[in-house]
């Protein structure tokens, strides 16, 4: 049985106002999560409602769906999203079957979520409606042009200024918040790979993939420096078609006008997929950039925090990009549900950073690996990849599990990535560290002294920002701002 509840979570006894810059998935999810625990949330989004919504596919892994179920959005999701259990792997040029992965009920039970696919716009609408219903204010056509973190204030393109107790930078890879926290504008380095994102009418699904579409399956094809991800969306009437291939050197991002004819970029594909390629709408080109991990997600003045793509840009189209953005909002809200005094704000923001950095670093590194694994240029390693899958596929085994059941890499992934419950982790932090600090401060307020008789030392020795929260993932090493030369 999947995790589902919409019970009222712990409410803050000290409501404050959060000013969220950027109304994408991270901004909306964060606003909803904060409202659920009793804080005020105002979202400022530069686009109008229509352009802020993407008209292509998005995949939701179990670690994300379980949060949305906790928030009471299960039935809203079920109306729009398809539950997917199967991934089918094939070669790009010939379409030869390599193998498949079927997530069994037992495996999913462990994660307390499900895999779902839907359109970005559909997820956007679900979160938008839930956040407004919960009392969040969401303003479109409100572009932030300046951020003054010390004054906790932003200036809009219209000249209007808006302030809040805490500023949340949810404005993505290219928004202004990231530059404010880093101290300068950085763009990330192009990797030579781009994703071309579009939709195709469902009627062009070739006969050999009818069954896969019926199962809401995801089709993955590996080529020479190219790859395809395709899955049904929009009540199976459309196919999300995401093509990874050489970047032609332009600069593109989600939300740009579709400009690339798919026939030009996917010409050497399996002839059976030609109807899809010929009838796809023009694709949006999204440059895949590599970014160094940020050392700090909290601005020096302690009142601007980054979440989602602004904190950790993911390769486009990867399954965990959206999940990490929603997890960020969920964790921030869980921590701030314990807010009882103004003085706790800064330490909660640093706790958020300490909790989220190890998780997002390891997941992002693995998603980068996956994108390049799929679109690996032809070489000995790609031959081994295909052969390995083919061998398992011929035996009827799940190709991602390596045939070893519980001992396999897939099980590790299920436990550490899909099985992770970010809200539980935030609760654990409070029990292990937050309460401890409150008790230490309480004792100090009651006149308890440190062993040298200095009450102030007892509190300063308790440096929150120095904590390393224990989570199961291995953190990749952070670089400092000085190492930034992207
Ligand atoms: C229009 C759009 C369509 C997308 N479509 C897909 C898709 O089909 N499939 C998929 O897998 N992923 C898609 N994505 C990416 C996906 O949303 C992200 O990978 C992930 O969910 C994390 O989102 P985020 O909210 O952190 O960042 P983003 O999705 O980048 O959202 C950031 C938001 O901040 C806003 N913003 C930026 N600068 C400012 C400013 N100065 N003032 C106010 N607001 C600002 C942006 O307009 C945007 O709405 C899309 C993103 C966008 C913006």
Automatic annotation (TrEMBL):
The record's keywords, sorted A to Z, are: FAD, Flavoprotein, Membrane, Monooxygenase, Oxidoreductase, Transmembrane, Transmembrane helix
Q: Which residues cross the membrane?
A: 12-34
* Entry superkingdom: Eukaryota
The chain positions of domain FAD-binding read 19-363
**This protein's record includes keyword Transmembrane:** yes
- Which is an annotated GO molecular function term of this record? FAD binding
Q: What family is it from? A: Belongs to the paxM FAD-dependent monooxygenase family.
Q: What is this protein called?
A: FAD/NAD-P-binding domain-containing protein
């Amino acid at each position: 049985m999947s995790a589902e509840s919409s019970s009222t979570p712990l409410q803050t006894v000290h409501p404050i106002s959060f000013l969220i810059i950027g109304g994408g998935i991270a901004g909306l999810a964060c606003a909803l999560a904060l409202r659920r625990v009793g804080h005020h949330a105002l979202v400022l989004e530069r686009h109008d409602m229509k352009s802020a919504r993407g008209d292509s596919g998005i995949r939701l892994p179990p670690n994300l769906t379980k949060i949305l179920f906790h928030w009471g959005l299960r039935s809203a999701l079920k109306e729009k999203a398809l539950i997917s259990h199967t991934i089918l792997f094939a070669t790009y040029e010939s379409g030869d079957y390599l193998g498949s992965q079927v997530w069994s009920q037992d495996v999913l039970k462990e994660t307390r979520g499900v895999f779902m696919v839907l359109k970005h716009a559909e997820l956007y609408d679900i979160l938008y409606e839930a956040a407004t219903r919960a009392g969040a204010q969401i303003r479109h056509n409100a572009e932030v042009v300046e951020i003054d973190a010390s004054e906790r204030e932003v200036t809009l393109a219209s000249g209007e200024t808006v302030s809040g107790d805490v500023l949340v930078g949810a404005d993505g890879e290219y928004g202004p918040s990231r530059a404010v926290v880093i101290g300068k504008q950085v763009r990330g380095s192009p990797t030579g790979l781009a994703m071309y994102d579009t939709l195709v009418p469902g009627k062009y699904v070739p006969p050999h993939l009818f069954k896969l579409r019926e199962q809401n399956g995801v089709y993955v094809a590996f080529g020479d420096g190219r790859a395809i991800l395709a899955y049904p969306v929009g009540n199976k009437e459309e196919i999300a078609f995401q093509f990874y291939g050489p970047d032609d050197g332009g600069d593109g991002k989600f939300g740009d006008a579709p400009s690339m004819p798919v026939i030009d970029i996917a010409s050497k594909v399996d002839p059976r997929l030609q109807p899809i390629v010929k009838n796809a709408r023009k694709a949006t080109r999204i440059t895949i950039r590599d970014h160094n991990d940020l050392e700090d997600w909290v601005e020096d003045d302690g009142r601007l925090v980054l979440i989602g793509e602004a904190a950790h840009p993911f390769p486009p189209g990867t399954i965990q990009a959206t999940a990490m953005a929603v997890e960020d909002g969920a964790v921030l809200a869980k921590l701030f549900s314990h807010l009882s005094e103004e003085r706790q704000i800064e330490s909660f923001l640093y706790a958020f950073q300490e909790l989220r950095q190890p998780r997002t670093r390891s997941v992002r590194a693995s998603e980068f690996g996956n994108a390049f694994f799929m679109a690996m240029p032809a070489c000995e390693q790609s031959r081994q990849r295909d052969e390995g899958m083919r061998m398992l596929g011929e035996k009827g085994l799940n190709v991602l599990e390596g045939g070893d059941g519980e001992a396999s890499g897939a099980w590790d992934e299920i436990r550490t990535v899909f099985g992770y419950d970010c809200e539980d982790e935030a609760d654990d932090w409070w029990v292990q560290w937050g309460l401890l600090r409150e008790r230490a401060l309480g004792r100090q307020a009651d006149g308890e002294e440190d062993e040298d008789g200095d009450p102030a030392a007892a509190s300063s020795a308790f440096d929150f920002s120095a904590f390393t929260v224990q989570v199961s993932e291995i953190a990749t090493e952070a670089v400092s701002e000085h190492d930034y030369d992207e």
